[in-house]
Amino acid sequence: MFLALIALLDIIAGIMLMFPGFGESIAFYVALLMLIKSLSSLLGGMLDSTFIFGLGLIDLLAALMIFFNFTVPWFWLLLLLKGTYSFLIGFLSG
């Protein structure tokens, strides 16, 4: 269930990148949470000695895009797919 809550952050960030004017008042906080999430993912991968950094890198890029207010075309689709997949897995598993 915790994974489903964290996945909602990906979905919100994806919507914020898809519609740049959406959520201007909470953009700093969403970017900060995405940055914390990405750093914990990257650090966890390094400590686990697997260093699978693909998902953490997507979160880091999303945090930087939201914080500096720029977008890469279609990048929001990665966040929405990742968030939807994580939400369904988190919600259905417990």
Descriptors for this entry?
94 residues, mainly alpha
What do these coordinates show?
By secondary structure, the chain is mainly α. It has one domain. Helices cover 77% and strands 0% of the residues. It contains four helices and no strands. Helix 1 crosses helix 2 and helix 2 runs antiparallel to helix 3. The protein starts with a helix and ends with a helix.
So how many helices?
4
Number of domains: 1
Described by strand count, sense and barrel closure, the largest sheet is: none
Query: Strand percentage, roughly?
Result: under 5%
SSE order, as H and E?
HHHH
Mean pLDDT: 89
Terminal CA distance reads 6 Å
What structural category characterises the helix and strand content?
Answer: mainly alpha
| Rg from alpha-carbon coordinates | 13 Å
Shape, principal axes of CA atoms: globular
Q: Give the number of DSSP strands.
A: 0
Task: Provide a short characterization of the protein structure.
By secondary structure, this protein is an all-alpha fold.
